[in-house]
Amino acid sequence: MSDPVCPLCLRPIPPGVPQSLHHLVPKLKGGKGGPTVLLHHICHREIHATLTEAELARDYATPEALRAHPRLAKFAAWVAKRPPSFASRTTGGRRKR
C-alpha cells in the first residue's frame, strides 16, 4: 500500500513523519464532524499561520482552494523540494481565531 499524499504540498506522508488532521471547515465555524484531510504537520501549521478560522470556513474549505492561496502556493512549492520527513518552524505565529 502506498503512503497517503499531503493535499497541500502533494508529497507522500510516510509512517513516522509528523502529520495531523485538518478540518476543512474549522470546528469553531461548524466543521466538527465534517471532512478532514491528512497533512504533513509543517503544512498544517502553515495553513493556520496564514489564514484565520473565518477565512478557512468562508473561502478555503477545499484542498484546491488552499493550494490556490498565494502564500500557501509559494510555501507548497518551497516545501515540495524537501524530503517528506522535513520539519521546520514556520514563520510567524498562529493567526487569530
TrEMBL record:
PANTHER family: HNH DOMAIN-CONTAINING PROTEIN (PTHR37827:SF1), TUDOR DOMAIN-CONTAINING PROTEIN (PTHR37827). This is HNH endonuclease. It comes from the Bacteria. It comes from Pseudaestuariivita atlantica.
